[in-house]
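Researcher: I'd like a structural prediction for the single chain below. Treat it as a standalone chain; there are no partners to consider.
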Amino acid sequence: MKIIAMIPARYSASRFPGKLMKDLGGKSVILRTYEAALETKLFEAVYVVTDSEIIQENISNAGGDVIMSVAEHQCGSDRIAEAVADLDADIVINVQGDEPFIDKVSLSKLIAVFKKDADKEIDLASLKVQITAKEEIENPNNVKVITDINNLAIYFSRSVIPYHRDQDVAVKYYKHKGVYAFRKQALLDFYKTPMTPLEASEKIEAIRYQELGKKIKMVETTIESVGIDTPEDLEKAKKYLNLL
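Model: Treating it as a single chain, here is the predicted structure.
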């Protein structure tokens, strides 16, 4: 299997515009993410996919591989699918551009899903982490996921799932982490399909894969990522970098 990493990178993030080009210890956030992906040695190639000439120049000047998006895209899967269409790859890993401290252990677990899937039944693999705090469980910014006994995703929602009607039954809640590993064909099928009704309602791209009948294997992790969504997160990342 040829495994590659794609890092979708938009400049105009709504909550923190230009965050990928913010300075993090002398390098941009996106460059640190790109270099961290290379350093895992899990991939035959790593690409940044962007619609921004500023990001393109930053990665290119550092000797990195970058692909410019041609079309406008509503989500990371669309951006990656356009870029990967003509590339030689079997498995594509979506690495978040705002997570410069990559969790190699969890990425290895995602790749292992496909290495064990001899019959090629799994279309995607993604990560989940258990949450216990009431405010986290009820926060609509946290996408929750429920799975079957084989850890295949049943549904994703911003609502609380499952609903805990019987308080005598022990229930675990899991947050979906937006790190995906795709078979290339699953990505291309997603790209050529318009946004589906449930996806449009929840604003969760994983649901489109489910509405297309794709099987998503969820892998549990206990490692919380260090993502950069706000200026406060950037300051935390700078302190974290100094501890490494």
